[in-house]
Fold:
Amino acid sequence: MIIVSRRAAAAFAHDIVMAAISFWLSFYLRVGDDIGHYSHELIWAYDAIFAAIAAAVFFASGLYRGIWRYASLPDLIGLARAVTLVILIYFPLMFLATRLEALPRSIVGINWLVLMALLGGPRFAYRLLKDGSLRNILRVDAARASVPVLLIGAGEGADLFIRTTYRDAQQAYRVVGIVSDDGQRVGREIGGVSVLGMIDDIPAVVGRLAAKGDKPQRMILTGRNIEGAAVRRLLDVADGLGIPLARLPRLTEFKDTRVDEARPIEPVAIEDLLGRPQTVLDRNSMRALVAGKRVLVTGAGGTIGSELTRQIAAFGPVRLSLLDNGEYALYAIEREILERFPNLARNALIGDVRDGRRVDAVLASERPELVFHAAALKHVPMVEANPVEGVMTNVLGTRHVAEACRMHGVRAMVMISTDKAVNPANVMGASKRLAESICQALDILEARHAAGTRFVTVRFGNVLGSTGSVVPLFQRQLAAGGPLTVTHPEISRYFMTTREAVALVLQASALASGDDEARGKLFVLDMGEPVKIVDLARQMIRLAGKRPDRDVKIEFVGLRPGEKLREELFHEQEALVPTRVAGIRLAAPRAIDYAMLSRALDELAEHAREGRTDRVLVVLRNLVPEFAANAAAAERLAQGS
Structure:
């Protein structure tokens, strides 16, 4: 056994000193003040021999693979074995050498107890100091479970999982080893389980375990600091070894950890595969933006709107108003807010942003200081088939909300936009680009007034699991046994978790507060690298424990109307400007004078109300020139696929 770190070396030195002290202390406890009748030189000699034997036994017994931070009953058992071996070697040897004359026989038992106390006490005192509880230390060994597992990550998660398996004799899992991303922990132990290697050594570790008859049947991610690219590589390794990859749930995913302390495992979440280092956010500025304010969220029952509602409620607004045209979606989020924040003043309002009178009445009665506009039609093929409805909601609905914000003195309106507004090839993207133009123009116009409304636009790509997105579609298709349908082998999209996207929306809103340099510009969220949809499909199949193209087929069905192969987060002519938050940048698209834009919007509204689809599309193409060329190109590509 090799001492692998300075901490292990320090523990080794500590134990040798404790062994030397234990001999003297045991002798004194046995003879008391009569110790003066014995030769101190002889006692020192016996003590030196005792410490030397203890050092050899401790070094060979593997005591220093354990990590004091996670010391528990298995470690105590290991100490007892080592101490017993020291006693069994030393005292028979000394009794024979001295013919039982120099040492009282009872010192054997006394020394065992004293040495156990001196070695075990500091270890468990350190653990108690870290945990603040004896509960995690006093645990018992479990019977061998049926499913051997390999843990990835040698930290808190691994310790919690191992302790859970010890707690329940009927536990379904047996931990056969750990791999770590920290080389300092290789060769050490947590709860009696060895850290067998680094993450890159997984194939070799599995091979060694298999040779001993302990091949893991599952690998479990226990850490949360592993980036998405690393998780994807782990999934590839697991797939090659034929071992499913799972993860421990986040602590926030437990219903009530005081009632149910079990640590279940689950497949690797799709957001783990797409993950990347989280942006460090200034939560104080976000809280300052919302705390004590009256806030209104449109589209509050949707994917983005409901998450906005949750995060805004947590920052302590004085009143939160929720507007949506869907009764059940509005009811669901309103009930959730009631249960989580019972003291928050709130109001759930049924209404459609397409109805200008209703929007005006809502703002007049609620008097919000901040408005987050998330209401929109977002499904590309659906809006392509119903262009008038898309324009009515996305363009005219945004206009109604924006004009009402101006009229009622709202401090700031934040509009949620999409990457499909960049070089749009479909009606949905073009309508959102026109909505961006409305907010841009009004933001510039309101800059003339000291108390003018700020219009903030935040643009980002797809959010995982949103209504109508590809992830829920794949999940339904997997549940039905496949196939998974992908429109094109090369199609790719930007993805972000809903929670992260909304947090960045709030952060961008806080950045815009008082920043006149950002007027007329758009905030663009950093979405990382685009993900090929076919790769996402294959990953989800493997997460379900199946093999792509063998157990579950992938079918290419062709691009849908208005669909592009690749989306963009900004136009090539939009100069990006960094902000003080790494995950947020500013873009400056061309702006249109609001008076001129307003006349065109009046014409667009008239055609939309009369259902003149052709005229609506003509006006839309005139206001968003890049739409016409890109729509034609997308149509040719779809026909060619």
